[in-house]
Each structure stands twice: as structure tokens, then as C-alpha cells.
Amino acid sequence: MTLSSRDTAGRRAKCAPLIGLIFSAAASSVHAAPADLCFRGLNISGAEYGEADGVEGVNFIYPSASTTSYFADKGFDSVRLPFKWERLQPQLGQGLDDHELDRLKASVAGLRDKGLTVILDPHNYAYYAGHQIGTAEVPARQFAQFWIRLAAEFANEDGIAFGLMNEPHDIAPSVWLDAANQAIAGIRAVGARNLILVPGTHWSGVVTWGEDFGRGSNATVMLGVVDPIDNFAFEVHQYMDKDLSGTNEACVNADLAVTGIAKLSDWLRTHDKRAFLGEFGGSKERDCLTGLARMMDQVATDSDVWLGWTYWAGGDWWSPEEGNNIQPTQAGDRPQLSVLRPALEPAAADPGACVRIPPAG
Q: Would you place residue 33 in the very low, low, confident or very high pLDDT band (cuts 50, 70, 90)?
């Protein structure tokens, strides 16, 4: 999705429920060993909302107990948890805000109590307070310092992965690579061996992974990621609408998205890398439902190089008209759940295997 779409709602899904299609799509979504995937989860949106000085419950919200229970009971095994960097660290180079850190830790504890793996996600698009990482205002070393402080709080905790940054976009791949590598070095320097999920730039899109937009492609530049313990995977996102942003209800590019996953799988095998589909989603329209099933099926087929997926999104404050929304209403489950739920079964034989902390040494 675009930057502005994260803080706005009201994009409308106009189609009527398609019950027969939903069950047909659901039945076709799990041809290949979904239990091999480490992540079969969702993003629970809300803590990234509002201004940095916003008030909890008024301007932003962490997942409620009822929302957490609902999705855990449906069989989701992981949550990508977006939050706002500026709220957690009000001043670059300074300590984390105690109150926001307490809120984040309490939310993580609530999710873990339900058996959910948690992916920490500073949802900032490679910006801090309007300035891009890698500029004089936000040097890469300050991004690394942020992660040093955050990693120290969650170092080697069971079931916790570190997502470096949500959707860097107009930052040059080489600049982003430098910032990512500094952050990874900082995380490892404090002894944290948690799995790190590393996005590319250009919104970290699956389909555009190999495209050179004049400053190098992710497929070339991001091979330069350096992790001293080699416990990382690439985080990528993909939507199926006309501009691949997830902001339009019609999924006219499902074929492109599915083919993109297969092509990226080949690239991953060639370079002995792994990936995680951190965001994908669609409205209740016919092509979106079948597209979601096909995307999950392709990831499951290629589970040798994919860690899994987290759907975008649920969240306590999501508008009922939000096209990708799977937060339940008084009427019950959203149509997309009938496609997603079959891909949650059977439960993983070794839940959270990919986030297990590797031994030191």
C-alpha cells in the first residue's frame, strides 16, 4: 500500500458476498504442505496510527484481548505488529520512551500468551519525522542505534522476530542496504540472535524485486546483506490491484502476483536465500478471493524457500468499508476468512521453528 493509505480508511468494497466462490477458492488454496510454513498469520494494525504524541485509545491502539483471541482461535499462528518509531523513540539517539515501551511489551506478552509468534514492525517506510534514513537528519547510524535499543529489550526472547522496517520506497537500494547492515550489526552486537526480516526498497514488492529503477535492483543490491550469524530472511510484500498497492478493490493483477512469487522463489533458490510475505491482501471481490488462494498455494508449494505469510490486515479500528479488512463485524466473519482458514490447517508440526533462537558460538 502507499504511505497515505496506512492512515486512512474508507476504501469501499461494493460486491455482494460470493459464498459458492469463496468455498471453491478455499478448497483449492492448500494443495501443498502449508504446515511446512513458519508464519501463517496476519498484521494487526492500529499502534502505528496517529501522531507521535498521540493518546492511546484516542489516536492509536494496540491489539485488544478480544481481537487477539479471535484470530488465535481461528488458527492464525503469528502476528506482524506495526508500531510508530517516533512514538517509541521520541528523540533520535536517545532512549526509548518508557510508557510506549511498556505498551509494546504488554501487547507482545498478550500475543505470546495466545501462542502467537510476533514480528516487531516499525511501520515507517524508512522515514523518521518526515526525514528519510540516510540523510543528514536521520543518519543510518541512528537507525542502527534505534535497533540496538529495541533489540536489547527483546533479545533472544522466544517467538519474537525483528522486522527491520516497513516498506522502504524512494530510498536508493545502496543507501537502504547500508542502513540495514548497520542495524543488523547493532542487533548482533548486543547479543540478540533473533530472526531478522530484511525488506528491500521500492516498497519491497515481489513483482518489482528484479527491476532496476535507475539506482539498482533489490535482486542485485540486497545480496549484499551481511548477518554475522546468517539468521535473516527477506521480507517482501505484494498486492493484486491495478497499481499493486492494495488500495483498490479490484484484483486485476492476480496472475502477475502469483507469477512473481514463483519467479522470486527461483531467485531465492539460486542464491540460497529465504523470504517472508509480510503483506498481501484483497477485497471480497471474486478475483481477489481466488487470487488470495493462489498466492498462498504458491508460497506453500515453494515452502523450501518461503517462511510463510501475514495477511494485511485486521485491527480494532479498521473501517467496515476497508476492502482488505478481516476484522469481524457483528454479522460475523469476513468473506476472506473462508479463503484464509483452510491454509491454516493442519497446524504446524513444529510451530515457530524459524524464530527459534540459534545457539551462541
A: low
From 167, 235, 249, 322, the catalytic residue: 167
Give the DSSP letter of residue 211: -
Write down the pTM of the prediction. 0.92
Identify whether the C-beta of residue 198 lies closer than 8 Å to the C-beta of residue 180. yes
Mean local confidence (pLDDT), 143-158: 98
Question: pLDDT tens across 271-313, in order?
Answer: 999 999 999 999 999 999 999 999 999 999 999 999 999 999 9
Nearest to 235 by CA among 354, 66, 322: 354
Q: What dotted CATH number matches 4-355?
A: 3.20.20.80
Per-residue confidence (pLDDT) for residue 82, from 0 to 100? 98
Instruction: Give the Cα separation of 80 and 193 in Å (integer).
Output: 19
CA–CA dist 92, 148 (Å, integer): 12
What span, in angstroms and rounded, lies between the C-alpha atoms of 347 and 247? 31
d(CA 126, CA 185): 18
Q: Out of 86, 100, 235, 279, which one is annotated catalytic? A: 279
Q: Count the Cβ atoms, other than its own, within 10 Å of residue 351.
A: 17
Upstream peptide bond of 228 is cis (omega within 30 degrees of 0): no
Q: Where are the domains of the chain?
A: 4-355
Please give the distance of CA 185 from its chain centroid, rounded to a whole number.
22
Tell me, yes or no, if 86 is annotated catalytic. no
Look at residue 166 and give its three-state secondary structure.
Answer: coil
Rounded Cα distance between 207 and 173, Å, is 16
Question: Would residue 157 show up in a list of annotated catalytic residues for this protein?
Answer: no
DSSP string, 303-326: TTTEEEEEEEEE-TT--TT-TT--
Residue 325: per-residue pLDDT = 96
Cα–Cα distance for residue pair 257/238, rounded to 1 Å: 7
